[in-house]
Design goal:
The protein has 637 residues and is an alpha+beta fold. It has 20 helices and 23 strands. The chain has four domains: 224 residues, Heat Shock Protein 90 (2-Layer Sandwich); 134 residues, 2-Layer Sandwich (Ribosomal Protein S5, domain 2), CATH 3.30.230.80; 96 residues, Rossmann fold (3-Layer(aba) Sandwich); 127 residues, Up-down Bundle (Four Helix Bundle (Hemerythrin (Met), subunit A)), CATH 1.20.120. The protein binds adenosine-5'-diphosphate.
Length: 637
Amino acid sequence: MSEEKLSFQAEVSKLLSIVAHSLYSDKEIFLRELISNASDACDKLRYEALTNEDLLAGDGEFKIKLTVDKEAGTISIADNGIGMNREDLINNLGTIARSGTGAFVDALTGDSKKDMALIGQFGVGFYSSFMVSDKVEVVTKRAGDDQAWKWISDGQGEFTVSEAEKDSRGMTATLFLNDESKEYLEFHRIQQVVRTYSDHIAIPILMDRETEEGEGDEKKKVITEETLNTASALWTRSKSDINEDQYKEFYHHVGHVFDDPWLTLHNTVEGVIEYTNLLFIPTSRPMDIFHPDRKQNVKLYVKRVFITDNCDELLPPYLRFVRGVVDAQDLPLNISREMLQNNPVLSKIKLGLVKRILGELKKKADKKPEEYATFWEAFGAVIKEGVYEDFTNRDALLDICRFKSTNGDDLVSLEDYMGRMKEGQEAIYYITGEDVSALRNSPQLEGFAAKGIEVLLLSDSVDEFWVSAIGIHKEKPFKSVTKGGADLDKIKSEEKEADDKKEDESTDTEALDRLIAAMKVALGEDVKDVRKSNRLTGSAVCLVADENDMDMHLQRMLAQHGQSEAAASKRILEINDGHAVIEKLKSMAEKDGTSNTFVDASKLLFDQACIVEGEKIQDPAAFARRLSSVMASGLPL
Ligand code: ADP
């Protein structure tokens, strides 16, 4: 079959043009990426060979070989792993397969400096070879196949695929190094890069070293093959033999993320069920953390043999930010991926891992609150999914949840909150919305602030769900301050006089009742009710949801997601009986509660309450007209 020319998927071309023109300073990482792929390919074959030994064709010693050709200016990376057939080649080296790389392309800004920083953050896999080469040639044969294939590209939008000759299975990538990258022809330079980034790779990375022996005419070149890495699975080594950099490089390899690990958990569990875990929690939130597939990111090994990187039975979805490996001793080596479902050994391992992770998080939360705050910022929203999904661990999860609150800028725990509850306070108060600083200014909080009652400020979308799912915590119900009555009267103020003063204020109930009746008529279908507020102190009005209706923020969220019927339920307008505007309206209502001015003023107040809620007002033109006319009569000449 003759050579076939194909185009890269558009996203790949975009990625390649950035990679090729990048001034990214750590170009050496190309080697890490190619070695990482080679090692994964060996892992995959080792797994497939468990059920089909013929695939090994007698060669079960996996290795990666690096070869340089100084004259040709090439470095090649060869493995005896799974290899690729024609389709694999076209799919894997022509499109973007991994969601992380997809997220990278989505994150590209066009600003070369920023995009460059992203390369470091994501690692761009195989495509990083174009940072150092003008041309890349891949020759590969899939284990068990007879036909080999050759893939060639200069990284400029197209690649060719053709039949090729190759004796052994696996893949060899040959990089034609560009003028700036000739340093990767030198043994020492390569050795240094491998030691830095790939020491943890469990299979040997070999390279020929050329030395001279003898004197004068006797001088001759001697070639010895050296192993550049330690070549034992990192997690099987003792903790004291592993330094932080080695852990970090392993984390990059296994996790496909390139920040520093925030937490490293390396343990061996012995007893009824034996396993080793080397798990990492990233420092920053990966781009695809909220991808709907909520895919797990921990690799399962059985007695050092890679089984799968897609094992949903190892950790619950709310711990999907955890990276690393679990190596189990008590599973059969020939376990198929299907058999992993509902496997009792795995369930026990999962229980143990969740307990350990939550325990470590709790320790950090208690002892290092500042460090914990970075974790919480990145993954708090994910952990909170667990509060409503994992009933067994609900208390442990609530224990490590942290919240912003009206108590200050620090994160607070539910325990802190409950310890500060006021005499007579029956509920854990919270408010939900998109943005904490906007929430802090919500009028609905005024009465709570006046009484010194702390309110939790919840701004993750998931908050609406876990709060309503748990309902009650340690006998105290969660209560939204934007919903139902504020039952503030039962709670004692800091200063008793404040309560007494309030009593004095509420005098003229008749005038207030008249005003409320007139406003209800003026606002008609816009509101469910108008009532006197005991949660406002500074603002004139605010909106709240009726006790049994859906909270307003949740309604808005659902409406944004196209579930607009959810937006139908109406709100209650609460008015502040102590406010000057309400006083004036009272006397207007007494004279003529149906006058245009009164109706306009009522509608203005309603629109204002909507704006404060961050909602659209129904008729902006009418709002502007009313506001101008009120200003015209109110402004001094
Ligand atoms: P990633 O490794 O992150 O998935 P790459 O772009 O580096 O992304 O590689 C794309 C795919 O190409 C891999 O997922 C794998 O299927 C295939 N591949 C890369 N290198 C090899 C190799 N040495 N042997 C077999 N397949 C490989």
